[in-house]
Amino acid sequence: MEENKEKKNSSNKLFAILSILFAGLSAFLGYELMNQKTEKEIVMVEKEKLSGDFETTKSQLSDVQKAFEGLQTNNKQLQSELDGKKEELEELGVKLNKYKGNAGMIAKLKSEIQNLQNSLQTYVRQIDSLNVANKALKEENTMVKTDLESEKGKTNQLSQEKTELTAKVELGSKLKVYEVFSDAVKVKGDKETSTTRARRADKLRTCFILGENSIAKKGDKMVYAKITTPDGQVLVTSKDDSNMFTLGGAREYFSIKKSINYNGEAQDLCLYYTPKDKEKLKEGKYKAEVFVDSEKLGETTFELK
């Protein structure tokens, strides 16, 4: 009888121990299941946020691209800068699609897009200012021309007045160039596109306006462009005497020359330098100088990356 009672007590103890172990195991498994569910929810939230950031940035990029496409100007230098910004936006679009799953890169690209968006108003103000300046310049040219004609008509003035008029005419007969700019272009068929990348450049372009001057000497004139590389070398197609001109009594190299017929009216001119076979353009700042009949009339700089 005592033996049966002891067996029953042992069975009860074993059952109690197993119950405790089962309860503990159930609690542990419940805790782990809850943790896994929380981690999955966190991952899903992060993915949704990343997807939302990508779409927002993509939309912002599209808006900025449309805004830049709407900016146009007749100023070649400013238009060249605008083309460069459009090219930067295209590259940012490629990177955005490439790193659409990288939160850090999306944030970096979004910051770069924001910087370009911030520069929009600066370009709008520049274009407006140029329009106002061009209008004022036309009015000033009209006044100068009127004054000059008036001076030329005074044939019975005193000797001193004649001397002053002669000096004015001599000064006024000098040629001038406006809106000098230079950049690199990539050529595809008949289309030229400005680029700031040295490896993409097919040609170097130097453009300017040879100003109107009704009293300047008319006829054939030789126009030169001299392009100097970042390390101080003049770009030339050859090193012989045919690529040199006289400047201030000395012989110097030029990069491009073009013969024109000047009739006193303003002319838009562009000179193109095509690199020699296997000639690689260096990265850095270039200087372009413009000469007419060996007289320097203007210069500008541009940079290739």
Helix fraction, binned, reads 40-55%
CATH topology of the largest domain, by name, is Immunoglobulin-like
- Any idea what the radius of gyration is? 37 Å
Q: Helix count?
A: 5
Which structural class do you get from the secondary structure elements? alpha+beta
The CATH class of the largest domain turns out to be Mainly Beta
- At the fourth CATH level, what is the homologous superfamily of the largest domain? Immunoglobulins
Largest sheet data: 4 strands, antiparallel
Distance between the termini: 101 Å
CATH architecture level-2 label of the largest domain: Sandwich
- Order of strands in the sheet with most strands: 2-1-3-8
Global shape = elongated
Question: Topology, pairings included?
Answer:
Blueprint: H1 2-69, H2 76-98, H3 103-118, H4 120-152, H5 159-172, E1 177-188, E2 191-195, E3 203-210, E4 219-228, E5 244-247, E6 250-253, E7 256-262, E8 267-273, E9 284-292, E10 295-304
Describe the structure in your own words.
The chain is of the alpha+beta class and 305 residues long. It has two domains: 2-118; 175-304, Immunoglobulins (Immunoglobulin-like). The chain is built from five helices and ten strands, in the order αααααββββββββββ. It has helices at 2-69, 76-98, 103-118, 120-152, 159-172; strands spanning 177-188, 191-195, 203-210, 219-228, 244-247, 250-253, 256-262, 267-273, 284-292, 295-304. It has a four-stranded antiparallel sheet with strand order 2-1-3-8. Strands 7-4-9-10 form a four-stranded antiparallel sheet, with no helix packed on it. The longest helix is centred in the first third of the chain and has 68 residues, at 2-69. The termini are far apart.
